[in-house]
Structure formats: structure tokens, C-alpha cells
Amino acid sequence: xxxxxxxxxxxxxxxxxxxxxxxxxxxxxxxxxxxxxxxxxxxxxxxxxxxxxxxxxxxxxxxxxxxxxxxxxxxxxxxxxxxxxxxxxxxxxxxxxxxxxxxxxxxxxxxxxxxxxxxxxxxxxxxxxxxxxxxxxxxxxxxxxxxxxxxxxxxxxxxxxxxxxxxxxxxxxxxxxxxxxxxxxxxxxxxxxxxxxxxxxxxxxxxxxxxxxxxx
Length: 216
Prior knowledge:
Elements: E1 10-11, H1 19-24, H2 31-47, E2 51-54, E3 59-63, E4 77-79, H3 83-92, E5 95-97, H4 103-119, E6 129-135, H5 143-156, E7 173-178, H6 183-204
Parallel strand pairs: 1-4, 4-5, 5-6, 6-7
Antiparallel strand pairs: 2-3
């Protein structure tokens, strides 16, 4: 409601290496099944006036939320690269958002989701497969970059060097996260992106005219 329908929510079950699981005493082995129930509850609350739900983890009686989303059918982007995440995206997702996967892995997941969605009788828009990565103009040895890469490795258990994406591997949307030591540095990185990268991207890939429903 605050953004007049411009919200694009994305959901993932989180890395099993993240510290909050141990801090909260939560068993990571159940997070996928809990997420499936939560997503079903959220979808119904967004659409229905009153929701009854009885699952293995959550039970609701006459639950409701207000105000309802501005969009009549609020999109749900799903994250994750496991087989369960692929099935989840194919079953209910309107898009997929990579969580730091290297390009080759992202390409594998995109292909698997498309195959699973077809099997489920669904079609996800071609431009609804996204990737997010951090960027920094300058040296990889910059303190802010080193800290970010160390935090990424600690949080995910993955090598942070692959988080720099080269090529698209079937991914068509990118979320750019500037790295810097403070607010001014982050804004400076963002200005460099706007001034130096976006004009080149626009020149190489000019925007295609939008197709309206009457043109289909």
C-alpha cells in the first residue's frame, strides 16, 4: 500500500550456517517444510478475507490481515538452489532470485525450474529469473570488500570469490549491492555505477518496447 503496488517480495529459507538459527535454538532441518507452510499461509492471507490453516507446524483459525496488497495477485519470488527450492519455485513462484550462486550454478537452477514448471503446467516469465551480487569499483583488497567477503563466507560456508558474476547464464535481472566503508562511500559507488556503467549497458542493450495485452 505504501508503494502503490511496487513491492516485489522474495523468500528463501536461509543458509544453515547462519548464526541466527543457533541463537534462536531452531532446527535447520525443518526450515524448508516450515517455509512451505508459511508461504501457503501468506498467499492465502493476501487473497482471502479469513484463513483457516492446519499444518504440521502452524495452525490458524479465522486469521486475516489488512490492508490487502494493492496488487490483485501479489508476486512471490523464491530463492534457493536445492531440489526442494526448485520444486517450490516451480509450484508457486512467479520468479526466482539467486542467493549468491555462481553463474554456472544459477544457469543449472534456471533450467531445472523451467523444466519443473512445465511439468507442473505452469509458465514463469523469461525475465523473472534474477541474481544479486555485491560490487565495488576499486581493489579487491579494499577493507570494505574484504569484510564483506569474509562475512559472506562465514554466513554461507561458500567461497566468496564466485560472488562476482561474469555473464548471465540465463539470468535476466541483477540486484547490485554497493560495498563501502560508510554511507558516503556507498553513495560514491552507486554514483559510479550510474555514471559509468548504466550508459554503456543502455548503449549495448537498448530497451525493448513493452508489449501490451492488446499486442499479444
